[in-house]
Amino acid sequence: MDWNNILFQVIDLRSFSSVWYWIMLAVLWSSMSYYVLGVPFDLITKARRRGGQEQDDMVDLVRINVNRLLNLAQTTGPIMIGVVSFILTTLALLGFVYGIELAQATFLVALPLSIVGAISLSSARRIRAADPEPEQLYAMLMRHRLWTQIIGMVAIFVTAMYGMFQLLGTLRGL
User: Fold this and answer.
1) In 3D, which of 45, 34, 41, 170 has the Cα closest to residue 101?
2) Which of 32, 45, 101, 132 is most exposed, with the fewest beta carbons within 10 Å of its own?
3) Hey, which residues does 35 pair with through a beta bridge?
4) Whole-structure pTM value
């Protein structure tokens, strides 16, 4: 009984042919567009429609998350940039130079997520600097959500095209 063979049959490292990878990708981008700077989208829409306490809660939650994100960026920003850059570079080299499919799949998820992280930081800085009224805050949050969705759609499209290219190359090699 070859344990390595059994282990790699159970844990399939061919990401693009795994239904779990695609489910994870869909859930990830759905969640990324649902939580706008850490605020659930339904809370934003309720606050916009009803006003009152829901609006106050939404404004408070945005303030808390913006302060949390900016504090994190201020205290660990350079270290985080270095770590993320190292991880992305390592994944790119392992995936596209050495041909490891798991690294390719992870890179195609991690790169757009890091872009969304940078956009989130930029939005947080803009919100803190502007100290907007609730209507302006809604517009800023919706703009941030739109950009997150655009990046997510492009990321899913590129990943799907690259995944199909990889699978066709695998099939052609058979």
Assistant:
1) 170
2) 45
3) 40
4) 0.87
